[in-house]
Specification:
It is a single chain. By secondary structure, the chain is an alpha+beta fold. The chain has a domain at 3-41: YefM-like fold (3-Layer(aba) Sandwich), CATH 3.40.1620. 26% of the residues lie in helices and 22% in strands. The protein has a three-stranded mixed sheet, covered by helices on one side. β2 (27-32) and β3 (35-41) form a beta hairpin. It is flat, with a radius of gyration of 23 Å.
Length: 82
C-alpha cells in the first residue's frame, strides 16, 4: 500500500493526476497545514469498461451545413481580430 500526502493546494491543483496514479489499496491523504483531514481511496470493484466503437451509429446525423466555412465575423472573433 502506497500512501501519498498532499497539501490542500496541491490536491486542488493536481487531484486528477494523483487519482490516475492510484492502484490497488493505495491512498491519498489530504492535509490542511500538515494535519491530515481526509483520505481518498479507490472504490473496490470499480473498473473502467472499454468503449465499443460505433455504439451510437445511426442515432444522429451530421447536417451538411456542419462542413461549410464559418462566417467571417465568427472567425475574426476566434482569431482575436475583432
Amino acid at each position: 500500500m502506497k500512501s501519498t500526502r498532499l497539501n490542500m493546494h496541491d490536491a486542488k491543483t493536481h487531484l486528477s493526476r494523483h487519482l490516475a496514479a492510484l492502484q490497488g489499496d493505495d491512498r491519498i491523504v489530504i492535509c490542511n497545514r500538515n494535519r491530515p483531514v481526509a483520505e481518498v481511496r479507490l472504490l473496490p470493484g470499480v473498473k473502467a469498461r472499454p468503449r465499443r466503437p460505433g455504439v451510437a451509429k445511426g442515432l444522429f446525423a451530421v447536417p451538411a451545413a456542419f462542413f461549410e466555412p464559418l462566417p467571417e465575423e465568427l472567425l475574426a472573433g476566434f482569431e482575436g481580430r475583432q
